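Changelog-adjacent note: as of this version, every example in the card shows the full chain rather than a window. The one below runs 209 residues end to end.
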Amino acid sequence: MSKHPEQLGFDALLETAAQDNTARVFEQETSHLPSDWTEAIAFHRRQIERHNDAMLANDFDAAMAIRNDAYLLARKLNGGAPGILAGEDAPGCVLARKVAAKDGYVPLWGQDGVFAVRAAGMAFNVEMNGMFGIGATAMPYLGFSVRAVDCTKPFLSETGYRSFLGVSVEPVLDMTVAGFVCRVVELHVANELKGKLLSVAVEYREQRS
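Full-length structure tokens:
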């Protein structure tokens, strides 16, 4: 059944009212968050510090709340619109980049970072995801990926690369990012690879040379 013009106009009013209400709710939710970029970056650094403390204490509820707050911050910087991770210049990506750990340093929980570590008889480079990483608002532990330092030596995979998303371990107080990565890799080698590392295929050695 077709709608009368009057009904179409009423539907438009309802949609406008719903949009206005959504905007008001968002404004209330983000009233404590800065909209200026300089202030936002400093604020996000403090979020990471609090998030790191929560993760070290195994207070995952607090950690997840801080991550959600960080997403609200990025969205506020995006004018309230989604797409906070849509590209390199999107607010979430810029925030993550501005507060990332220096290369070679183990990041705090919630920071992006690249560092080297040894575990399960291997040396490898780690690319750690911060609180804007894939699955960060759904899983307590953040994802990461690893790459072989020396592709002529046994590794976790034949490609010299392995990502770990949605992984978990038994919570331990004061477990750092490096400690978490090492534990995940050790469990993967023990359980998935049955203690046997793999040779990196020749074609992948050539790509890395």
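Structural remarks: Residues 113-208 form one domain.
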